[in-house]
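[Meeting: bench + compute handoff]

Bench side (C.D.) handed over the final construct sequence. Compute side (W.E.) agreed to return the predicted structure before the next meeting so the bench team could plan truncations. Sequence as handed over:
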Amino acid sequence: MKVDKHVDSTEVENLLKAILKLRNINEAKKFFRDLMTVPEIKSFAGRWKSARMLDEGISYKEIEKETGISSATIARVSQWLNYGMDGYRLVLDRVKKNK
């Protein structure tokens, strides 16, 4: 398994363990709203939407138009989607499987 030294710390693991304790969307909304600002939440949501759209083969231009996210951010999401730690791929595949 690939490991990114930037997220391989006790504090990051503690945060991720806390996230795994969330039981439903309502709990997740409460936790993330306390943890992050509204713009941070919207930024993460936009990146996730970009990943889903890229996975569907939608163009950067259309993604930028629909999400308001910069082409530079979309390019980074694309890079991580294709050559990252496979985190996007893992969750995208699980979401597709559960539809």
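W.E. noted at the follow-up: The chain has two domains: 1-35, 37-99. C.D. will use this when planning the next construct.
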